[in-house]
Amino acid sequence: MPDDVYGGGGGLSTEWTGKDVGIQWRHARAVGVEELGEEAFGAGDGGLDPEFRDYQIVILDSQERELREVHTVENRFSYTYEMNRLDYGRINGSVGANRALIVRVWVRGRQNQLSEEYAEL
Predict the structure, then answer these.
(1) Exposed/middle/buried for 40, CB within 10 Å: 0-12, 13-18, 19+?
(2) How many CB atoms lie within 10 A of CB 115?
(3) For a tag site, which of 31, 39, 77, 88 has the least CB within 10 Å?
(4) pLDDT category, 50, cuts 50, 70, 90?
């Protein structure tokens, strides 16, 4: 999957800045079908879906144990080293930090429904 967020590629990106990791993805777009007369012409105009509430981000360790769940309306999130150490300690009962992470991002609607598919970084 392409990692160039701004180049019109896949829209997924991770960037390690020191011990922190920045995550970015393309904004959710309208998925409804616009009908003109009798014909369907595909997706909408590319604006945010009116039912969009926020993104649900789940951070997992390499064993797929959930470390943290956050919600944001932005299409980016920074998982700091401090968060990582706290999550590691809570899950493992010792001092340390996770060296491998799995990040999953869902779109959450106004009724708390999650998108059927998620982006994984």
Answers:
(1) exposed
(2) 16
(3) 39
(4) confident
End-to-end CA, the chain? 9
pTM: predicted TM-score of the whole model, two decimal places: 0.72
pLDDT digits (tens, 9 = 90+) for 86-121: 999 999 999 999 989 999 999 999 888 998 888 888
DSSP 6: T
- What's the Cα-to-Cα distance from 62 to each of 34, 89, 111, rounded to whole Å? 42, 15, 31
pLDDT score at 11: 64
Amino acid letter, 29: R
E strands along the chain, which residues?
Answer: 12-17, 20-25, 35-36, 39-40, 52-61, 66-72, 76-79, 101-109, 119-120
Residue type, 4: D
Q: Is 53 exposed, middle or buried (0-12, 13-18, 19+ CB in 10 A)?
A: middle
Q: Domains along the chain?
A: 12-120 (2.60.40.10)
